[in-house]
Amino acid sequence: MTTTDRPWSVLSRHVDFRRLFIGSSISLLGSSVTLVALPLTAVVYLKASPAEMGLLGALALLPHLVLGIPVGVWVNQWPYRRILIVTDITQAILLGLVPVLAALGVLAMWHLYAVVLLTGVAGLFETVTAQSFTPRLVRRDQLLPANSTLMLSNTTVNTTGSALGGLLVSALSAPLALIVDAASFVASALCKSRIREAGRNPAPAAQNKQHLAGLRTVFAHRILRPVILAAGVGAFAGQAQTVVLVLYLVRDVGLPSGLIGLLIAFSGIAGVAGAAVATRVTRWLGPGPAFTMGMFLSAAGGVVLAGAVGSLVTAFAILMVAQFLRGVGPSLYGVNQQTFRQTLVPADMLSQVNATWRFLIYGGMSLGALLGGLIGTVLGLRLTLVATSCLMLLGAGIAWSSPVRELREL
User: Fold this and answer.
1) What separation, in Å, do the N-terminal and C-terminal C-alpha atoms of the chain show?
2) Of the four, 14, 95, 106, 372, which is 20 to 30 A from 363 by CA?
């Protein structure tokens, strides 16, 4: 592996990108704690019902469905650095309110609903902005290693952050653990405030008002169109699979909770490995084949999951293989699909395209979650894994049968 292929090498050459990376990694670590602490606050502290937990989860995705497209236009109208700082401070304040209200004895479910919804809005702005800002902070030929570095950070932090969240909840109680996330956003804002590039967009105001410009840009492009279709089908099916996974492991396979936690952690470790080699694999195969291979690996992981039969030892070994595939695959296609957008989309349209992407992908994931629960009830959990894997294979087939298959360089 050459120096330029190493995901972390881009950090040493681009100071502003390093500051963005550090700030984003810190806030992501705090958010991983919240993924554990906030639901536990609802369940343990507020005694939430299943219906209330469902509403809490739905509100987290609602901003992507309602604001996904217009956010791209709005982001284009302000300096990127300013948006990142404001959204970090906003999320710090919102999350910091939860332990304060708990300490005062007045915390209620509607407070959590409001916090989840508003932090979801701020997080949407932040993600679209960061993805649009990266091409301003690194050279074009360094976008692939830059995205690999971000993916490596995301998978590493997500793998360790949930475990940290569990420890903090045990030590501090669920509401107080959210202080860590609030503090992480303050630290993130301080890091990002040191970025020298303001990220002002020179696009004229008239162009920024074209709310459907992102959709038109994506679906008019011979490469981006099949990529978004493949990714959309894959995300829809993948989320339908994810919502039944733990139930399947408990009810059909009969795994104890400790082994389930180990399997989930192993998938995260595989994701870290996938992000670490994504640049090298992409340079070897080409970005199009690497993207397609990542989708095929993810789909194959679901098929292997469904084949976990036999003794507990045998089933667990099969599940480890499945989780490896389900960890490595998303890293390969995730790094490349983000690089596609940043490379093939003009700078003045990138925020609209990134927002459109999140609207379609995350909107599809919310619908996929509903479908997964439905077909899991009707067909059973094992057949649901098979059906969703077949649908994921369809997404991979869309990419394979398109010009993406022949894309050897950007």
Assistant:
1) 20
2) 95
CB 344 within 8 A of CB 221: yes
Residue 154: what residue type? N
**Global confidence as pTM:** 0.70
Distance CA(290)–CA(303), nearest Å, equals 20
pLDDT in tens, 157-208: 776 766 666 677 667 777 787 888 888 899 999 999 998 888 776 654 444 4
Beta strands in 108-267 (DSSP E): none
CA distances (Å), origin 276, targets 18, 64, 190: 17, 29, 27
> What is the rounded CA–CA span in Å between residue 121 and residue 124?
5
Q: How far are the Cα atoms of 38, 40, 104, 125 from residue 169, in angstroms, in the given order?
A: 10, 8, 19, 28
Tokens describing residue 119:
């932090």
Using alpha carbons only, give the angle 255, 256, 257 rounded to the nearest 5 degrees.
Answer: 115
C-alpha 301/C-alpha 323 separation (Å) is: 7
Q: Model confidence over 231-251: pLDDT tens digits? A: 999 988 888 887 777 778 877
How far apart are alpha carbons 242 and 381 in whole angstroms? 11
